[in-house]
Structures are given as C-alpha cells and as structure tokens.
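Section 5.1 Outputs to date
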Amino acid sequence: MNMQQKPMVIGVGNEFREDDAAGILVARRLRDSLPLWSVQVEEAPGEGTRLMDLWKGRPLVMLVDAVQSGSEPGTIHRLQVPDQVVPAAFFRYSSHLFGVAEAIELARLSDELPADMVIYGIEGKAFGYGTEPTAPVAAAMEQVIVEILQRVSRFGETAAFGSMK
C-alpha cells in the first residue's frame, strides 16, 4: 500500500492550550498504537492549506480537534464530511482565519475532499494556557482513540479484501 492509499489520522490543536490539545494528544497516542504500514498519523495546528495538502488523495481521513458548540464538555461530535457541512463556529478557538471548516468547504467546492472523511470534534471547556486537558475531554479522547482503531481495522479488512479481486 503506497502512502496515498493509506488512511490518515490528523490531530489538530495546540498542545499548550488545555482542551485544545485533544487532537494532538490523540494523534500521538495513535502513532504509538498503530503499525506504520496501516495508517499515517499527522499533527497539525489547523492551518487550512496545510490540512488540504495532508488529506489530498486519501481514501479515508479521520480528523480530531477540540470544538466549542455549547454542548457538555467531553461530548463527541462525529461529522461525516462528505454528507455534512462543518460549522465554522465549532472551531472558534482556532488562530487561523482559514482553518478546518474553511479548508473542508474549499475542498468540497474544488472536488478534493476524501471519499470518506470523519471529524471527531471533542467538546472542550478550558482553552487557557496549560498542557493537560480537562477530565471530560481526556475521557472523550479515550473513546475517540478506540473508535479510530476500530475504523482503521475495518478499513484494512476492506482494503485487503478489495485487493484480492
């Protein structure tokens, strides 16, 4: 399987802003848990053009980021990107004017979205300076890790079966 055929996990955030570190920390844990041949794991601060470069041509992308929608901290929002518009307000703590939501919508308009893309938005509570996420976010991170491991496993089975045809 070449690099472009591998699923990709992108952890977005800032490791020094409490709950905003969720995506980065999930990516780091997954990098330690997944075989290199099965999935590519990247960390990104959330700058839109960089994200578009990362996911270009990928069959499956799972992006993890902290969001703030007013839901209970630790809530996991799962957005199936090809089917759903991503609310820009989710990512209001991003320091980028062209961030996750804008990159997705531009990729949608230019027909460059991955065929299968899911965003795991973990509802954050604290976005001040600090290196530890709050307890509800840490618990949600564990659940997202399990879900991504399951999804990557299913993808590997499908890819292997498809290559036998």
